[in-house]
From TrEMBL:
Pfam families: EamA. The chain crosses the membrane at residues 31-50, 62-84, 90-109, 116-134, 146-169, 181-199, 211-232, 239-259, 265-283. Residues 3-133, 151-281 form the EamA domain. Keywords: Membrane, Transmembrane, Transmembrane helix. InterPro entries: EamA_dom, EmrE-like. One of its GO terms (cellular component) is membrane. This is DMT family transporter.
Length: 286
């Protein structure tokens, strides 16, 4: 149950992070935003990881996998922000949250037992997410910076990135230690974003007015990812990855409340299906 709790807490944190991401990414250059967010997370993690991280436990494979998880972070976060810059939360978040099936598949490949009830729970989550996404197919172009299909493609790639990030991060944590893995992944991701920013001759100056919000986003994102990665050493670690997917639905709820984005009755049906899947996972973990 502890892994499930880690995942649900991460989901709530990411929901607020994504709400800010949707608001700030519209019409803005994304690389400066991503660089500041990732840099803030690293600055918070460095003193903690250096002070209490078990660096002696890190093995060669753990270092290599942790670095690969950083590439997954770039893929997940970059595509997430891009999708949010193109379409409303109600379309993007449910699709990004559809990664649980990939996370459980990774658990199978790693040789961990996955029951039929686990797959049933994931199916319920994915069906709910699909309902929310499918019900937007008749939306007008208002609020979209590109066609819904383009936004969906970016969101789908982001979902793959999240699945890879969680699977690689948890495996690295099992072969090494939590905090060193988390910090290594984020430093690799930050290095990639900085390199891309320099390559495109970007500047952080336009984002100065948003620095306080971006720093908060970086901190809470680091905490959420840390919770999911830390679950790698717990029983049924895949529960953390699966349950954290709830952030997609929670973001829809928050957007409906704060950004006044509409949620149709059929979308509430999808939300109920997701909650049912999460509840089933909880019962399995008891």
């Amino acid at each position: 149950m502890l892994a499930l709790g880690f995942g649900l807490t991460a989901a709530l944190i990411w929901a607020f992070h994504d709400l800010f991401a949707r608001k700030l990414s519209q019409g803005a250059a994304l690389l400066p935003i991503l660089t500041v967010v990732m840099g803030a997370g690293c600055l918070v993690l460095i003193p903690v990881a250096l002070a209490v991280g078990d660096w002696d436990a890190m093995t060669g494979p753990a270092w290599a996998i942790a670095c690969l998880s950083g590439v997954g972070i770039v893929m997940a976060m970059g595509c997430l922000y891009k999708a949010f810059s193109l379409a409303p939360v109600r379309l993007v978040s449910p699709v990004v949250g559809a990664y649980p099936i990939l996370s459980l598949a990774a658990a199978v490949l790693q040789g961990r037992p996955v029951s039929g009830a686990d797959w049933l729970a994931v199916l319920a989550i994915c069906i709910g997410i699909t309902i929310v996404a499918w019900s937007t197919r008749g939306d007008s172009a208002e609020g979209y910076a590109a066609s819904p299909a383009v936004a969906l493609a970016w969101a789908a790639v982001s979902a793959i990135g999240f699945a890879l990030t969680f699977a690689l991060g948890q495996e690295a944590a099992r072969q090494g230690a939590d905090l060193p893995v988390i910090l290594t992944g984020r430093i690799v991701a930050l290095s990639i974003f900085v390199a891309l920013l320099i390559w495109h001759r970007g500047s952080l100056a336009p984002q100065r007015g948003h620095f306080p919000v971006l720093i908060v986003m970086g901190i809470i994102d680091a905490v959420a990812l840390g919770l999911v990665t830390a679950a790698g050493g717990l029983p049924r670690a895949e529960y953390a990855s699966v349950s954290s997917s709830l952030f997609g639905v929670l973001t829809v709820l928050l957007a409906a409340w704060f950004l006044k984005e509409s949620v149709r009755p059929v979308q509430w049906l999808g939300i109920a299906a997701v909650f049912s899947g999460i509840a089933l996972l909880g019962l399995q973990g008891m």
